Amino acid sequence: MWALEMRMAWSLEQISLMTRAIWRRVSVRSYRGEPVPAETLAEVLRAGEESIPLWPHIPVRFVLAADADAFLREHGGTLLGYGRILGAPHFIVAISEVTAGYMENMGFRMEQMILYATALGLGTCWMGGFYSRQKVGHLVGLAEDEQVVALTPVGWPAAGGPGRLLDKTLKAFVPDRGGRKPLERLVFAGRWDVPAGQYLTQQTVLRTALEAARRAPSWRNTQPWRFIITENMLVVTTSRPAEQIGLPYYRLDAGIAMSHISLVALCAGIEPAWVLEPAELAGLRAGLAIPEHYDLVGGLPLDARWHTPAPAAILIQEPEHATSRH
Question: Domain 183-324 carries which CATH code?
């Protein structure tokens, strides 16, 4: 079970730091420009390399572009998303073998690295598009069966500045950006579209885990995940877009949300054991009335511990920020 491996890879203190970082992480697009010490960058990279997978058999790599200026020149001068990333001294490129489950696996793994960087005081910003994967792939030396899945700038966040102004301006023109949906619109009980109010009124481990998932970054803040609580399982689904542009980032988004749920569980002393095999999940769709345009990504067995009060250390401690990915 991957949860047992996670306890060996991360100390309880590190797990707690990453979980608390969920509440305060934001997408940083403006940086101070000064380099991050090499030993700190090595620590962040190690967090990615030692991150725990959903699918242990899928190889991933994290490649540091230590000189952002040189990286940008080779790429063509700019990395675009909702505007430029300003002043970032470094970038990290996330690479995966392309096989079933690779997108959610990368979301799960890279988010651990992102949260670890946040706990160190660094800024990051998930970037899943609006750059040339072919050019970036050439720079990092892709194998034939590999794919550049995402990248992130890394650096010390600038205080205010043009990045903040740009972000506010773009919110007015990009329809999917803005506030998050409330849990009541994301979580169902027993079957699709049945309100889950009885599970959301108390600050239990389960509700805290779902709130952590709600805080996960997603492509253009579309928040594609929906969750169904059954008597003994939490089912994770994610919405396929009507028209897919680029890679299936809606599945990456599901992996990020699942990473948040897992960290909360581990902080509460629960070792989550995700059910991921399609054959084991197939029977759930009809019984839970899941719409056809939602992918069934995983199921998490629940027991009585999930319905106990959440430890104070993992309760929400920071104000909410809408967080999107490029």
Answer: 3.40.109.10
Alpha-carbon gap, residue 298 to 233, rounded angstroms: 10
Cβ-contact 114, 62 below 8 angstroms: no
Quote the CATH superfamily of domain 2-174.
NADH Oxidase (3.40.109.10)
Given this model, what pLDDT does residue 75 score?
A: 74
H/E element holding 218? strand 218-219
Q: Tokens for 31?
A: 């940086």
The pTM assigned to this predicted structure is 0.90
Rounded distance, CA 44 to CA 111, Å? Answer: 11
Displacement of CA 48 from its chain's centroid (Å): 13
Q: What is the pLDDT of residues 259-280, one digit of tens each?
A: 999 999 999 999 999 999 999 9
Segments in the chain below pLDDT 70: 1-8, 77-83, 129-130, 160-178, 316-326
CA gap 218, 111 in Å, rounded: 11
Element (H, E) at 17: helix 12-22
CA distance 63 to 132: 16
Calpha distance 103→105 (Å, rounded): 5
- Phi/psi for 152 (5° steps) reads -145, 140
Ranges of each domain in the chain: 2-174, 183-324
